[in-house]
Amino acid sequence: MGDVSPQVADTGTAGVPVVEFDDVTVCYPGKGTVRPAVVNINLTVSKGRFVCVVGPSGCGKSTLLHVCSGLLKVTDGAFRYQGKEWSKLHPGIGYVTQRETLLPWKTVLGNIALPLKINGMPRAERRDRATDMAGSVGLGDWLNAYPRELSGGMRQRVQLARTLVTEPALLLMDEPFGALDAVLRVRMQEFLKSRIEGTDLTTIFVTHDLSEALTLGDEVVAMAGAPGSIDQIDQLEDLPRKVSAVELRQVPAYAVHEARLWKTIAGNLSADGVALSNSAAERDGDHTMTAAPRGGREVS
Ligand SMILES: Nc1ncnc2c1ncn2[C@@H]1O[C@H](COP(=O)(O)OP(=O)(O)OP(=O)(O)O)[C@@H](O)[C@H]1O
Known about the structure:
GO molecular function, one term: ATP binding
Strand content: 15-25%
Number of strands: 11
Structural class: alpha/beta
Region (Disordered): 280-300
Mean pLDDT: 83
Keywords: ATP-binding, Nucleotide-binding, Transport
Protein name: ABC transporter ATP-binding protein
InterPro entries: AAA+_ATPase, ABC_transporter-like_ATP-bd, ABC_transporter-like_CS, ABC_transporter_ATP-bind, P-loop_NTPase
Bound molecules: adenosine-5'-triphosphate
Number of helices: 9
Number of domains: 2
């Protein structure tokens, strides 16, 4: 296991808490003995912070987002959104999931305007808002195109626009760029950074890719184990924020963060890359790094 910092993590000391996990355990409903998906989660995310969550497959990253979104209730402990215990869908929360969820029979404009329509916004107003938003994600010339006519990156931008158009206070993103090629992925990271910079939008972003986490995050939460728990929080104050993803990798502190996080994650991986159960991880003892981090060889 890597450098293990205390499990209580306050991600951003000065701000107003938007999300609070207070000693949370989550079990999915099931028959017989149910194994928890995550245990002892203590995490506070303050307003305006961009928090990336990394960790091996199965350690419970998506489970944390499901709780934040109101899709899943905690089994033990408390979850608070904007200071209140919350266990249902909240209109102020935008969720971009791993799966593509555009409606194929609706145009770019129709897809982006859909949540506004559901919220009862008058037609002319939602058309204006969706048109502006499409322009701001670089799709102003594609308003009448259907999803099948767009590239993967364009479809991902429509999904992002459809979420941002509702002006969420909390943005949850689960591997949103996972299916994109390396170049497009870096472009989308830079696009997202530029959209969010200067706003007080709070973002929780799940990724397998350490380089993505280090490029986007104010801090990185590293989860490990099965059931999953938080092993480490890396504050990224020593990384410059206004440089490109490529330039960032030349900064010496970048390599320090990457190595430290990688050690935490790799120490809890089975040979096939899945989170080890906690008993197996303890049995196997301290693991050393044997391979380059996944993100380390992407676009430079
Ligand atoms: N709907 C479900 N019902 C039962 N168990 C589930 C369900 N969804 C997830 N789990 C279990 O909860 C644990 C955590 O899953 P989760 O999807 O949160 O992990 P993850 O870190 O996001 O994985 P990945 O990186 O592969 O998406 C896993 O053991 C998984 O099998």
